[in-house]
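Margin note: ligand = adenosine-5'-triphosphate.
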Amino acid sequence: MKTLLHMNDVHAYYGAAHILQGLSLRVDEGERVALIGRNGVGKTTTVNTLMGIARLGAGEIRIGDALIRKPLAYTPAQHQIAIVPQGRRIIANLTIEENLVLGSASRHPGPWNLAEVYRLFPILQERAHTPGTALSGGQQQMLAIGRALMANPRLMILDEPTEGLAPVIVDHLADTLNRVTSQGTAILLIEQNLGLVARTTSRYYAAEKGRITASGTVAPTNLNELHNHIAV
Ligand SMILES: Nc1ncnc2c1ncn2[C@@H]1O[C@H](COP(=O)(O)OP(=O)(O)OP(=O)(O)O)[C@@H](O)[C@H]1O
Ligand SMILES: [Mg+2]
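Resulting structure:
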């Protein structure tokens, strides 16, 4: 199995603040992996390090065969990793369709295009020419995922996509992620919602204080174990 993303003993900083303290994880082709952990343990910083927002101080990041010495904002996109950021970051003065087309800037060949994204999320087509911010929270999350898919990523990283969503929307999100992974796209799902983790991933890493302190398979029999890494 080909490794898509490998972070090995990564240390990362915001200014002098040492946030990631030896974090290691890997995601292989087509895998469905969760990264769980309480607030402030460094989950978003893991993503930010891949984009050069947090500074990589030591350790190794490999994306596919490439060794990434100095990650930059477009590094993940260049290597077919699409990121659905925490808080969604819909561009307010663009329409839904313009937001989607923006996602295809780093487009690679593959199954996803505007028609397929509209098939996945019909509501986005109905509202194609309205501003992205006119959508509800759940619809904005669909837009953020649709925009990521437009690039035909090999790996999609989602940072707490259920934040602020109603349970019924979370159900829809689970179905969506399962459809995406059934097309062969790998996911790294950053979440505290174990219901979504259980339904969409098969392996997990748990982070604490900037490093991985536990990992294993996601199965109905060990959800309690996962819960210990999230509950206070
Ligand atoms: N720009 C920044 N400058 C300095 N410290 C920061 C910055 N952003 C985050 N931090 C700190 O880094 C640590 C890790 O934050 P991070 O956002 O990675 O946590 P998280 O696991 O994503 O949490 P959450 O579940 O709340 O999103 C926290 O202590 C946070 O206060
Ligand atoms: Mg976060």
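The pocket of magnesium ion (ligand 2) is lined by residues 43-44, 86, 159-160 (CB under 6 Å).
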